[in-house]
Amino acid sequence: MKKSRVNPKVDAYFREAEKWREEMAELRKLMLDCRLTEELKWGKPCYTFQGRNVVLIVGFKACCALLFCKGALLKDAHGILIKPGENTQATRQVRFAGVREIVARRSILRAMIHEAIAAEKAGLEVVYDKNTELVFPEEFQRRLDGNPALRAAFGALTPGRRRAYNLYFSAAKQSKTRASRIEKCLPQILQGKGLNDRYLQTRKLPRPGRS
């Protein structure tokens, strides 16, 4: 089998990366070997199967990682998946501090990627705990409290889209950055679109003031 094609936008991302270039290049080769489609989503290399997000390559200060979008569905026989946060329900990470770690786990990672692809083929979904409430950053909570239309539009989004926005806003460490991200996303939320649904047709939203 031939490898998947490289994406020019992702090429640019790797060229501009300040850290973990060798590690991310090694992970990229593995993703393409598994014939996933390479895209750039949320500013990160994202690898998809038939339009469904499977795994992202992300870089942090202390490590780089593979982020499995539905990692909670994986068996993790080797115990290498990490839950990113206390309230995280779907995603799981495998973290690396060097190329050797990636090479040593290549066969394990390949098996996990194929397991994640199989889950997409089977249409499996993570069962979310409905009792888990989202805790919004105060910058976004203020906007929701002061804007009934925004509150209605955000409430009309699917749980997954609400979680994605909240994760994106909360990931910024500085209040200024959080506020900037929120401001840029407001038009998309008001149009009933998810974080990456740029081409989704606008849905009819409930009128302000109606529950």
Q: How many structural domains can be distinguished in the coordinates?
A: 2
Mean of residue pLDDT values: 86
Q: If classified by CATH, what would the architecture of the largest domain be?
A: Alpha-Beta Complex
Q: N-to-C SSE series?
A: HHEEEEEHHHHHH
The count of DSSP E runs of length 2 or more, i.e. the number of strands, is 5
Number of helical segments with 4 or more residues: 8
**Main sheet?**
5 strands, antiparallel
Shape: globular
What helical percentage do the residues reach? 40-55%
How does the helix and strand content classify structurally?
alpha+beta
Q: What is the CATH class designation of the largest domain? A: Alpha Beta
Explain this structure.
The protein contains eight helices and five strands. The protein has 211 residues and is of the alpha+beta class. The protein has two domains: 8-121, Aspartate Aminotransferase, domain 1 (Alpha-Beta Complex), CATH 3.90.1150; 133-211, no CATH class. A hairpin with a 2-residue loop joins strand 2 (44-49) and strand 3 (52-59). The relative contact order is 0.10. The model is unreliable at 199-211 (pLDDT under 50).
